[in-house]
Amino acid sequence: MNAADWVQCDSLDLKAPVYSGARHDAPTPWPGPFDAMRFPLSYEGSLPSSGNPRDPSKPSKLKEIWAIRNAVHLQIRSIYDHHSAFRGQFGHSNALLQRINLPIVVDGRNFYPLARVSFKLKCELEIEMLVNHPIASVVTNGSDLDNRLKTLFDGLRVPQSVQEIKGYMPPDITDYCCLLENDVIISALKIEAFRNTATPAGAPLDHVRLNMRVRLEPMEYDFVNEPFRHD
pLDDT digits over 215-226, tens only? Predict the structure, then answer.
């Protein structure tokens, strides 16, 4: 794919491939080489260690989780609107559209995750983490890295219960786009930490800028995940 195959979505600084060639309904032989859907996501804000709502000494981080979810919602919606896989112009794409349009309902709200267990997909994440403290203390400063990543993963997935909504979801929004149905779909993770040289004045130590590269690909062939093999 060359530079001419990309269209710039200026509002979200998101690039999505657009194909001009012929498409075919018949899948290529499996197993064999295939391409995956790849796209960037970004988030800037607080990324604290995850809390435990059952333990008062470890307060819940739902506010920060929803800040991540709100940022990702618009970016995933842009992918749905612009990516060739969701145009319904061929058999597999039409089947994927029909499945994507089936919401996961939590507390009367509709969530539309891009990567679902039923699609037989796996998700790989490469994360550039710009932090507001010396990178040598990325684990110890602002709490441990594992639990900060737990906060991020919670923000990338669909809420699992009514308790996770708790009034944080804007009342005027009933449809929400997410990256993941469940974070069990994440199969690989790579993180690089850098000192953020443009942190906003007064930002807390747990402030981050996350530049994420997402790669989705089938774990096994299924009719509905065929579009993920043509990116």
Answer: 998 888 878 777
